[in-house]
UniProtKB/TrEMBL annotation:
<keyword id="KW-0479">Metal-binding</keyword>
<dbReference type="GO" id="GO:0004497">
    <property type="term" value="F:monooxygenase activity"/>
</dbReference>
<protein>
    <submittedName>
        <fullName>Cytochrome P450</fullName>
    </submittedName>
</protein>
<dbReference type="GO" id="GO:0016705">
    <property type="term" value="F:oxidoreductase activity, acting on paired donors, with incorporation or reduction of molecular oxygen"/>
</dbReference>
<dbReference type="InterPro" id="IPR036396">
    <property type="entry name" value="Cyt_P450_sf"/>
</dbReference>
<keyword id="KW-0503">Monooxygenase</keyword>
<keyword id="KW-0349">Heme</keyword>
<keyword id="KW-0560">Oxidoreductase</keyword>
<dbReference type="InterPro" id="IPR047146">
    <property type="entry name" value="Cyt_P450_E_CYP52_fungi"/>
</dbReference>
<dbReference type="GO" id="GO:0005506">
    <property type="term" value="F:iron ion binding"/>
</dbReference>
<dbReference type="GO" id="GO:0020037">
    <property type="term" value="F:heme binding"/>
</dbReference>
<keyword id="KW-0408">Iron</keyword>
<comment type="similarity">
    <text>Belongs to the cytochrome P450 family.</text>
</comment>
């Protein structure tokens, strides 16, 4: 009798998670359609559970090459890939290095964006409370402080500095 209730409870929870996931996917598709966005390519896991990317990422982080891992992962998917979808178990991340996406998040359509609780909790011990860890009104306030740094002149200066910096290492 208890087994029946337990199985019913687990089945109900499983069904709830599936329906919630499908609703979220539909919401993302509607939002992407409204903005005329194409879905980003996916960094695929090599195992059934979807943990191979997580394992690679954790290993790279332990070796102090986390950002390099992201660049390498994007380059593996395609040389011109600048935004990537990374599913891990039941969680999904979007990672970008596209300047237009970054400007949209921090400037042009910043009111539409928030960060996940997972990211906030993960970076809080390292970074404290700020733009990379806050949510809601605190995050919007932090974004408002850095928004002037993403105006056209500042971004152009940053782009030129990056190019100059890269060239200095080539010689």
């Amino acid at each position: 009798m208890y087994l029946f209730y337990l199985l019913s409870l687990l089945s109900g929870f499983g069904l709830y998670k599936i329906v919630s996931f499908l609703r979220k996917v539909q919401q993302y598709r509607e939002e992407a359609s409204k903005r005329a966005c194409f879905p980003p390519p996916t960094l695929r896991s090599t195992n059934f559970l979807g943990t191979s990317v997580l394992k690679e990422s954790l290993k790279a982080t332990k070796e102090d090459r986390g950002p390099q891992f992201i660049v390498e992962a994007m380059d593996r998917v395609g040389k011109n890939v600048h935004t990537l979808r990374v599913p891990v178990l039941y969680y999904e991340m979007l990672v970008t290095r596209d300047l237009e996406n970054i400007k949209a998040i921090f400037s042009t359509s910043s009111a539409d964006w928030d960060i996940s609780t997972t990211r906030a909790n993960a970076f809080m011990p390292l970074l404290g409370e700020g733009i990379f860890t806050s949510r809601g009104l605190k995050w919007k306030h932090s974004r408002a402080i850095v928004r002037p740094q993403f105006n056209k002149g500042e971004v152009l200066t940053w782009s030129l500095s990056t190019i100059t910096f890269r060239h200095s290492f080539e010689y």
